[in-house]
Design a protein that fits this description.
two-stranded antiparallel sheet; 7 helices; 2 strands; about 5% strand; DNA-binding
DNA sequence: GAGAGACTACTCGGATACAGTCTGTCCGAGTAAATCCGG
DNA sequence: CCGGATTTACTCGGACAGACTGTATCCGAGTAGTCTCTC
């Protein structure tokens, strides 16, 4: 079980988009070039974000993406679920129902105990992702990334933002 | 991202093996029949448990599997990692290194901020799984499963335990 | 020179191939118990 | 009755398909800016 690389891409792209001033857009081409990724495939990750309503898009020259909400209203979970889907990581096939010692037609009242525990762990994972806002990531980056690189990056992005 | 069905199978099989008296073994065939699973494929999951040292095996007639440790010393995480592997669910390809604004040969001091957060969530998931012992699952089952089914199941298993 | 219309260039989004992993099956090698056979 | 050889039943491991998902690429639909042509 491993997350798609698109999750990583989407998170990094959102971090860049978070730095974009109100009303400006950044194209897939620019985001792909910045991260050294295949433009065509990256667009699929951005499409997922778009379908989930996390980003807004505009067509034509100087078109592209921008965040649909404030970075303070976007969590890691939003982005991860947009790409990976909202379904749980553990699916219960209820194999306990195959126990040959059960009376025919026996019906369970509560979900399988194994599944409940696995789902709790899944919820712990999601809960952690839900607790981290995109704005907090940007803040961390602005602290950790060397000032000159941070500045040049901002310029680079602004040069290409339509 | 979804866990293999083998994880579910391994957990249920361990629950059965936990009820097995000291020194008795239960075969793949019995476990497969009990859960209504393909014997050949289930054996792959049990092999994983064996390679991880979680179960002990004996060859020949009346051979099979038994737990290598007490159910109180076996956690969900042990079983899940035996089947799924111990590697993290999020892999960082360090795409930040492709930022064209970086000086050539620039070297990062700390891991990517995005990856750190994803790894924390991964650890939250593992931590939850680590906190649940197999003995606790068995206790829950003994409370929730109807007494007659629980008893018949025990007999069924003992009939086939070598 | 100005405005309306056509055109171009660029974008996103869906449709289409390729690859790797998960799922499932089959068979042979090795081993330990049970059985059989000769003394 | 006893001991050794044979048979049997089981695990283990590798080899091998089929299905599904992740990865990667391409092309069409649509839009915003630009250019041209007319007045």
């Amino acid at each position: 079980m491993i997350l798609k690389s698109q999750v990583e891409w989407a998170l990094h792209c959102c971090a860049i988009l978070a730095a974009l001033p109100e009303g400006r857009y950044l194209s897939t081409k620019a985001l792909a070039e910045f991260h050294g990724l295949p433009k065509e495939y990256l667009s699929k990750a951005l499409q997922s974000l778009s379908q989930a309503g996390l980003v807004h898009t505009t067509l034509g020259p100087s078109g592209g993406y921008r965040l649909a909400r404030s970075p303070d209203d976007l969590t890691f979970l939003d982005i991860v679920e947009a790409v990976e889907g909202k379904s749980r990581t553990f699916v219960c096939n209820n194999i306990r129902a195959n126990n040959p010692c059960r009376p025919a037609g026996f019906c369970d009242t509560s979900p399988c105990a194994v599944a409940r525990i696995m789902w709790e762990a899944d919820e712990a994972w999601r809960s952690k992702l839900r607790s981290v806002r995109l704005s907090s990531l940007v803040e961390t980056l602005s602290r950790e990334v060397r000032a000159d690189i941070w500045g040049k990056t901002f310029e680079w992005v602004m040069d290409r933002a339509g």
